[in-house]
Amino acid sequence: MAKAPDYKDLKQAVKDLKEEASLLRLTEKALEESSKKIKFFAYSVSHDLKNPAVGLYGLTKRLHKDYADVLDEKGKNYCEQILKAAEQILALVGQINVFISTKEAPLTIEKLKPKELLQMVKEEYSVQLSLRGIKWSEPKNIPEIKADRLSLLRAFRNIIDNAMKYGGETLSEIIFKYRESGAFHIFSVKDNGIGLKDHPSHTDIFAPFIRSKSSKGIQGSGLGLTILREIAERHGGDVWLELARERGITFFISISKTLELS
User: Which of 14, 75, 214, 229 lies in disulfide reach of 71, CB 3.0 to 4.6 Å?
Assistant: First the structure.
């Protein structure tokens, strides 16, 4: 005959569960408060950096313009370096704000046509594509999907921007593709640029501020692909990449088909 459970043991077990639940709630609250402080800190830093960067840029621009006849070549070169540094700070501040808004801004899920967003991105980069002789390829038809319009536009732009910046002089083709796989829409962008041969590990390329050796001298914040990952995850999907055997790289982003309209 089975032994009846000890009442004291059950009472202690319930007490232990309540204590664990209370501790869990406290931990969640602490994490939430910590997250709020980090966001506030990030916003504060980006705001505090922006104004002096704008001032630095403006004053240096005026110095370079008004005293060009006084400055020697070295002085002019210094001014140009300061201007570039100020521009990089402003770009980084902008990307930090985009990263925060990507994580926090509510998504507006609607029915949209990816081809229209692709056309916007293509037009944005049309001058660079033409000057560099880069061929752009995309599917004739892509079905309507459900997603946040601004987020998906930003995702497409970030992938293309990454290819344009880091593809190098050998970049001559960008191929955009679409396919379906189970519960996901999968978009991919393949380029024939220099790829990531010099990167020690491509698995962490989507982490914040990660840049390869080949990006030296190229303006960028190291947040573009992190933002891409955040967009994918908020759409119930993922991001990954594939390296070509010789040269080039393909980025993938998946979007869940089960997203509910806002």
Answer: 75
